[in-house]
Amino acid sequence: MSLSRQQSLTIIFGITLYRLVMLHLDGTDLFVDEAQYWHWSQHLDFGYYSKPPMIAWVIHLATVVGGSSDIFWVRVASPLLHMSTALILMPATARLTGSKEAAHWVGASYVTLPGVALSSVFMSTDTVLFPFLALALYAYSHLIERRSARFAVLMGFAIGCGTLSKYAMLYFVGTAALSALAIPHARLAVRDAALASATALLVISPNIWWNAAHGAATLKHTSDNADWNGLNFHIGKALEFFVSQFAVVGPVIFGAMILVFLRLVQGRVTTTERHLFLLSWPIVLAIVFQALMSRAYANWAATAYAAGTMLAVVHLLAHAARALRASLLINGTASVVFAVLTVFPQQIQLPDGKPVLARYLGRAELSREIAAAARAAQTEIIVAESRDVLADLFYTLRDENFIVRAKRRTASPRNYYEQMFPLTEGWASRRVLYVTGRQPDCEGGEVARVADLSADSGYYAGARLAAYALPGRCLLP
After folding, report:
1. Could you tell me the pLDDT band of residue 14, with boundaries at 50, 70 and 90?
2. CB proximity list for 265: less than 8 A, separation 6 or greater
3. If I label 130, which of 154, 173, 187, 468 is the partner at 20 to 30 A Cα–Cα?
4. Which DSSP symbol is given to 461?
5. Number of alpha carbons in the 13 Å side-chain half-sphere of residue 375
6. Of 369, 407, 319, 327, residue with least CA distance to 105
7. Between these two residues, 463 and 193, which has the higher pLDDT value?
8. Computed over its alpha carbons, how large is the radius of gyration of the chain?
């Protein structure tokens, strides 16, 4: 089942153009993470509370180019970055597999993966990471064939920038090392490995410095996400994560990856399949183990699917070429549908009447209601403890004269807003508007409610939120 280079490029550019048009028509609000990334982009740094800095730099560049912080410009880099990834994966695949046909299928398959389709309509750190992962694979494909200082520096640069996007980039280093141990052909020259390592370390060094100056905040948050508490075997969570991967990359692609796994056990794989297996499956298995010990989100193994898509395509071309067209049809349909959901987020609902994209709705509306309550209470200072509420307040009220602060309940900050924008003693005597789900008291007495913020739909449907006016000293630790 052939696919020409021109056909592959047509699919890549066509789906990207479609995503850009649909993004212009998008009717959703920024998700809490997206709003936070936008806020970071307004305060450029070498690191942030929960993530390295690349996503903030990318959003900053996009909003500067667009001259606007509207949702379109916050998200516009997503489809463009995935397009770039698909284009880089094509020559990387051609070199790693020796097949131009595989390269064409990988480009078209990658850009239509369900996980890629979803992250193309929103902004995430995975999206920013992937072009650098693809670039690292491309440089790696050259370095395993011959020594090259130029490609060693390129690989180090890609690994460094990928790590500045998301620390999951370091999985690539681990899988490349495993490949070198198992396959002589996959070994880099010592000089090239050293040069790549030095380059990567140089690129990452500003973030290392930032973490050292901020109590290793990002590293600590990443470690906390693992949430290991002894040897707990959550078989159900591990199984749930594993099954979710069929949705992340599509049933045909992940199914093909599983078939290669089984064939490997039977000793029936080619050297190319074994190599691509080592560049992909160890990541999936590591996250399955993480889910077994604690928890894991479906996207945590995303870095496996650059090489994983190559692995599936190589196997299917050799054993079930027709399935590649079926995969493209299934995943392509998902790509179209995801974008449609964002254009009609209120109208497309689940059987219970709840919008499919409920968690992307109602956030900006709540922020506007809070602003109205603050005006009614005659204060420009708004305090909240919910990260979701704080994130959207900073974004939605960005052009208004409100001062937004986080109520800090513990000695150590629990999020970026408590770290950088806490309510402090300087606001003790000021009248503030406090948004909370609990009835506050102040100096032994209950505080009168200014506004009921309960919502009937969207993300906050059913939440019992209200706004109260009180002196700032009542909210200090």
Report:
1. very high
2. none
3. 187
4. B
5. 9
6. 327
7. 193
8. 24
Closest CA to 103 of 217, 203, 4, 251: 4
Specify the 3-state DSSP secondary structure of 115: helix
Which pair of structure tokens corresponds to residue 374? 């603050």
The amino acid that residue 245 corresponds to is Q
H/E stretch holding 445 reads strand 445-446
pLDDT tens sequence across 30-58 = 999 999 999 999 999 999 998 999 999 99
Which tokens in the block code for residue 154?
């390129």
Calpha distance 70→30 (Å, rounded): 10
Per the CB < 8 A criterion, the answer to whether 201 and 157 are in contact is: no
271-313 residue pLDDT tens: 999 999 999 999 999 999 999 988 889 999 999 999 999 999 9
CA-angle at 189, arms to 183 and 194, nearest 5°: 120
Q: Letter for the amino acid at 346?
A: Q
> What tokens were used for 410?
């513990």
Residue 9, Ramachandran bin (φ over 0: left; ψ between -120 and 50: alpha; else beta):
alpha
CB under 8 Å to 250, separation ≥6 — which residues? 113, 114, 327, 330, 331, 334
Return the SS3 of 466.
Answer: strand
Picking from 60, 66, 119, 42, the residue whose alpha carbon sits closest to that of residue 305 is: 119
Which two three-digit tokens encode residue 360?
A: 């992307």
466 bridge partner residues: 436, 452
